[in-house]
């Protein structure tokens, strides 16, 4: 993965370098081509200008020598030379030269000797000089006119010689020559923005905007050419150095790319004179000369380099932009893929959730059914428990039946006796005694009513709903039911309750049932005891009441202790014990968030402790 990443990075780098390089090179080339074309056009334009100005300059003097042939004095001098005539012609030529601004104007006879000259007054004048070796003389003599650039033999001044044959009828009498300087032209070139030169038929630079280039050669001269030059004294024996120019390439339009070395780097100049130039040449009409202009390519190259750099930067920018877009696209694609994966995972999850929900709802239905079943079972259990409680009660009542029968028999017997006596007393007229008997009967009936009412209340099926219950009242009711047994056993229970009334949060009927059970068991345990003792007490501890029933019986045997609260566990005979009392009592206590425990007292006997929540003062009685 890392190697792949590295390779793609290298590839991107390679593409980047390639793109930037290609953009730079292409732009550079295109810029050079376009710039060269522009430069060529400019060069051509300059050439046009220079050629035109040179032609104009030369043409100004073109007819001078010819017009001299019209001068009678000149022809007369040639036909018959004399000092007077010569002086007249000299003066004439002098005036003419001054007016025309030429170097000199002079007349040669047919032998090539100077017979009159505009500079006749000067000590170094040409008069008498033999100039027959000059090409312009020979050209004029043979062709009628001649043109020649050369350096003067006398004063060494370079100039352009225009010659014309002086003809009288069919006879050539001599030659008129005008020498003009092209310095002005040259001077105007020095301010041009690029170098320019005029080379003659020998390739020698005769006019140039760079003074150091004058009389240098554009091409090497062979031996024959050198000898010819020596003979014509064209350059007056000047040394002809080659121009420090090297041709680099020849372009399509005939232009050349050349490298110029500056002949004198310190010389003041309006333009650079070294470097790579575009050289363009054109022949000067009417002459064997070539005009050459040089256009510097340095700026062109600098501009092309700038453009290439700019193109490179542009390409780099485009590449980076492309890279960025590509990365963005890839990022987007990854994100979309991640989104799709997420969606798939989500769908899968959803599907699983639906599956699980279906499972869950069926499990839930099962659970609900189970809960319903359990509720039904609980209800059945509760009903069974209630039945059991009821059975317990009935069992207690059954156990108490003998006592109750005795309890009712006694007053019934008393009633019978009292009512019989009352009748007798009434018959005897003993009203008061009869009335006393009747009162006693009332009391007994009340007592019996109370007992049956108590029994009825005990036997009643209670709701089992908790409410505030006064402990004292429940205890009194329980003891009332057991009054006969207590009396028989000669037991007066010792009651030890807190001073403030204790209110419990339970069902009064069931509380009575527990108390009846506990007291009954205590009485059973102490049956036949010599010193029976029953204590019923209560104390409050942390929102609960602890109610104890203590006897002084034999206590709970180890065997019984293990099974005390098990239903149907009894150590008593079938008549006296069902083994339900404690089991039911413990169940009732638990129903009201309480508990029941049995233990042996250190001083002997058993003590049963019932713990039940108390009702705070806010509870209604
Ligand atoms: P029953 O009284 O019908 O036997 P209980 O559930 O009330 O049923 O009592 C179960 C047994 O617990 C009794 O048979 C007895 O052995 C023992 N027991 C209960 N109370 C006492 C007590 N105060 N002293 C000694 N043993 C007791």
TrEMBL record:
Cross-referenced SMART domains: HATPase_c, HisKA
Classification via SUPFAM superfamilies: ATPase domain of HSP90 chaperone/DNA topoisomerase II/histidine kinase, Homodimeric domain of signal transducing histidine kinase, Sensory domain-like
Keyword Transmembrane helix attributed: yes
Molecular function terms, GO-annotated: ATP binding; phosphorelay sensor kinase activity
A Pfam family per the record: dCache_1
Chief site of localization: membrane
Reaction catalysed by this enzyme: ATP + protein L-histidine = ADP + protein N-phospho-L-histidine
InterPro entries in the cross-refs: dCache_1, HATPase_C_sf, HATPase_dom, His_kinase_dom, HisK_dim/P_dom, HisK_dim/P_sf, Sensor-like_sf, Sig_transdc_His_kin-like_C
GO cellular component, one term: plasma membrane
EC number(s) from the headed UniProt entry: 2.7.13.3
Domain Histidine kinase: 403-616
Membrane-related topology note: Multi-pass membrane protein
Sequence intervals crossing the membrane: 308-325
Main enzyme class: transferase
Compartment(s) of residence: Cell inner membrane
Statement: the UniProt record of this protein carries the keyword Phosphoprotein: yes
Keyword list, A-Z: ATP-binding, Cell inner membrane, Cell membrane, Kinase, Membrane, Nucleotide-binding, Phosphoprotein, Transferase, Transmembrane, Transmembrane helix, Two-component regulatory system
Protein name as it appears in the record: C4-dicarboxylate transport sensor protein DctB
UniProt organism field: Noviherbaspirillum pedocola
């Amino acid at each position: 993965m890392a190697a792949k990443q590295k390779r793609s990075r290298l590839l991107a780098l390679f593409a980047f370098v390639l793109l930037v390089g290609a953009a730079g090179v292409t732009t550079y080339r295109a810029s050079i081509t376009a710039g060269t074309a522009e430069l060529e056009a400019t060069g051509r334009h300059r050439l046009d200008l220079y050629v035109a100005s040179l032609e104009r300059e030369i043409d100004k003097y073109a007819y001078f020598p010819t017009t001299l042939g019209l001068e009678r004095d000149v022809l007369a001098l040639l036909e018959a030379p004399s000092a007077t005539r010569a002086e007249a012609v000299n003066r004439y030529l002098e005036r003419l030269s001054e007016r025309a601004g030429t170097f000199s104007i002079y007349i040669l006879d047919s032998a090539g000797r100077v017979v009159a000259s505009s500079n006749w007054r000067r000590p170094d004048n040409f008069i008498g000089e033999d100039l027959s070796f000059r090409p312009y003389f020979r050209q004029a003599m043979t062709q009628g006119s001649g043109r020649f650039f050369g350096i003067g033999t006398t004063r060494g001044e370079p100039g352009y010689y225009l010659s014309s044959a002086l003809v009288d009828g069919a006879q050539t009498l001599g030659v008129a020559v005008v020498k003009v300087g092209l310095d002005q032209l040259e001077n105007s070139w020095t301010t041009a923005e690029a170098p320019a030169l005029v080379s003659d038929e020998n390739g020698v630079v005769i006019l140039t905007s760079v003074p150091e280039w004058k009389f240098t050669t554009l091409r090497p001269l062979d031996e024959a050419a050198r000898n010819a030059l020596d003979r014509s004294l064209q350059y007056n024996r000047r040394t002809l150095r080659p121009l420090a120019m090297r041709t680099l390439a020849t372009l399509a339009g005939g232009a050349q790319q050349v490298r110029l070395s500056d002949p004198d780097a310190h010389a003041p100049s309006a333009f650079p004179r070294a470097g790579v130039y575009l050289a363009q040449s054109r022949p000067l009409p009417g002459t064997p000369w070539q005009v050459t202009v040089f256009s510097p390519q340095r700026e062109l190259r600098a501009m092309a380099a700038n453009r290439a750099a700019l193109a490179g930067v542009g390409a780099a920018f485009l590449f980076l932009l492309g890279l960025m877009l590509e990365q963005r696209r890839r990022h987007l694609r990854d994100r979309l893929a991640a989104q799709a994966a997420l969606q798939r995972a989500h769908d899968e999850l959803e599907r699983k959730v639906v599956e699980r929900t279906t499972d869950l709802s069926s499990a839930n239905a099962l659970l609900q059914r189970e809960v319903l079943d359990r509720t039904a079972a609980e209800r059945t259990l509760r009903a069974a428990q209630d039945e059991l409680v009821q059975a317990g009660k009935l069992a207690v009542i059954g156990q108490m039946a003998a006592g109750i029968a005795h309890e009712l028999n006694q007053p019934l017997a008393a009633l019978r006796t009292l009512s019989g006596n009352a009748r007798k007393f009434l018959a005897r007229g003993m009203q008061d005694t009869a009335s006393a008997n009747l009162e006693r009967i009332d009391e007994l009936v009340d007592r019996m009513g109370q007992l049956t009412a108590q029994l009825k209340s005990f036997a009643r099926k209670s709701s089992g709903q908790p409410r505030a219950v006064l402990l004292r009242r429940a205890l009194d009711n329980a003891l009332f039911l057991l009054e006969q047994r207590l009396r028989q056993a000669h037991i007066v229970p010792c009651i030890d309750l807190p001073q403030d009334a204790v209110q419990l949060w339970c069902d009064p009927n069931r509380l009575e049932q527990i108390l009846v059970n506990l007291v009954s068991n205590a009485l059973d345990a102490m049956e036949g005891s010599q010193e029976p003792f029953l204590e019923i007490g209560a104390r409050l501890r942390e929102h609960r009441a602890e109610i104890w029933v203590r006897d002084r019986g034999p206590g709970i045997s180890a065997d019984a202790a293990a099974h005390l609260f098990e239903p149907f566990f009894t150590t008593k005979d079938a008549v006296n014990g069902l083994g339900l009392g404690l089991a039911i009592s413990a169940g009732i206590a638990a129903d009201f968030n309480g508990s029941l425990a049995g233990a042996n007292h250190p001083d002997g006997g058993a003590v049963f402790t019932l713990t039940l929540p108390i009702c705070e003062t806010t509870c209604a009685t």
